[in-house]
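Bit of a strange request maybe. I'm writing a small parser for C-alpha cell strings and I need a real example to test against, not something I typed by hand. Could someone generate the C-alpha cells for this chain?
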Amino acid sequence: MKDSAILAIDTGTTSIRGVLFDMKGTTIGMVQVDNPPVYYPDGRVEQDPLAWRRALTHILTTSSALAQKAAREIAAISLTSQRSSVIAVSRDGEPLFPAIMWQDIRTASRCTDMVEHKHLVYARTGLPISPVFSAIKMKWLKEEQPDVYQRSHKLIGIQDYLIHLLTGRFVTDRSLASRTNLFNLDTMDWDDELIELFGIEKNRLCDLVNPGQAVGGLSQGLAAQTGLTAGIPVISAGGDQQCAALGMGLLSLDGVVANTGTGSYVIGYADRPIHDPQMRLFCNVSAVPGMYVLEAAGLTAGVIYRWFTEQFYQTEPAPDAGTGADACADRYDRINAEASAAAPGSGGLVFLPYFKGSGAPAWNPDAKGTFYGLTLSTTRGDMARAILEGIVADMAENLSLIESLSGPKHTVIAAGGLTRLPEYNRIQANLFGRPVTCASESEATALGAFISAAVSLGLYPSHAAAFSAASAAWKQTTWSPQPDLQARYRAYRDARRALIEKLFR
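Reply from user aminoacidic:
Good idea to test on real output. This should exercise your parser:
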C-alpha cells in the first residue's frame, strides 16, 4: 500500500509551482513553471489565463510522476495564489479577456473619483480603495469593456480560476474575498452596499467558502489527462501571503512575518478586525478560520532586484559561466557579492522602491522608483545595496505601523527569495532594530497550503500541531542587529522619510 502525499500548488506573480509533501510536511519534490505577466509602459499589467491552464496541467502530470516514483499516492491538492487579480470568464470557465493583475494601475483615476467613499469602504473591508484590489478592476471592465462584462458569467481571481479548472466549480475562499473591496469583515460575507457602490452584479461573484475547506474533487477529464485519481479533494488553502504567514508559524499575536517576494509584506496576527484610522494598513481574513492578519505591503521589491540584475549585470560573465541557467546564476552571484561588499548606507545613496507606485504606509500610485544621492563615486555595488536597503526600510516603517496599532512584536520571521542572501538578513536586523530569524524552509507559502490541507483532512488537530510537525527538523538562523550601525541606520531612515515627504506628499 502506498503512503500518502499532499500536492500544494502555489501560484505567484512570476511563476507557478507544485510542491509535493509527505504527511509530515517534508518536501518530496517540486516542479516550477516560470510565468511572468506583461508589464506595459502605461501601467497595465496583464497575463494570459491560458498560460496558467497549461502550467497547471504540466504541474499535475509531473507531480503524478514524482508521486509514483516515490511510491506515494496524492491524497489532496491544496491551492494558494496571489490575490486581487481579475479574470472575466464565460459560463464554462473560458477566459474572455487578459487577466488584470494585482499590480495593474490603469484604474488609478477611478480610485480618485471614488475618494468620497474611502472611509465607508475601509470601515467595511479593512482595505482602502486602491488599484491593487479587485472591485475597481471589475468596475473598469464594466465601463471600458462592456461587451466583455456582459458576456462574463463570473469575475474571478486566479485561485478561483484554477479551482474551476480542477473541479468545475466557481468558489472563492474568504481570505481571497477579503482582498476585493467587496467583502465585509464583520459579517464575513459579500457586502451588498459595496457591490452596488462599485456597480457590480452580485451574481458575477463566486460562492464563498472558508479557507482550508475542500471545494470539490478532481474532475474525471483532468485526472485522465494527468495520471491522477479522479475525485482527489481540492482544498482552497487561502491567499499566498496568508499561507506564507501560516507556513512560517505566525500563530501568535506577538510576532510578525517579513516576506520578500515580488512585493514586500509585513504581516501580523490578530483575533479581531483591526482598522487603522489613516487607512495605511490592511486587515484581511487569515488562512486560519476565525483569525485575521494585519498586512502592510510594498508593491515592488524582489522584482526590482531582478530588474537591476538583468539590466546591469549582463556583461562580464565569468569564463566558465556558460549560457542559460549557468549564466543567470553567475549574474546573481556577482550582484550579491557586490551588494554585500558595499558599505552599509550605500555611500549615502537612498533608493525608493516605487516602480509601481508606493504601497504602505503612503499609498501613492503616482510615486516613482528613485535613486537619490548619485555621485561620480557611486558604484554599481552601491546601487545594488541601496535597492536592498530601500526595500527593507519600507518594511521597517510598516513594522512600526503594525506595532502602533496592535502592540509590540517580539519575534520577526523572515522569508522570501532574498533571504538566501546573508547580507540581506543583516540589513533586515539592522533596519528593524531587532533579531530576525530565517528558517531553512524556502517554500513557506506552499507549506502553509500543506498545513491547511493537513488540518482539513484531519491529520492534525490544529494548525499549530501541523506546523510543529513540519518544522521539527528545520535549521534556523537568527541575525542580530549590529550596535555600531544603529545610529547610522536611524539617520538613514530619517533622511529617507524627509525625501519621500518632499517628492511624493
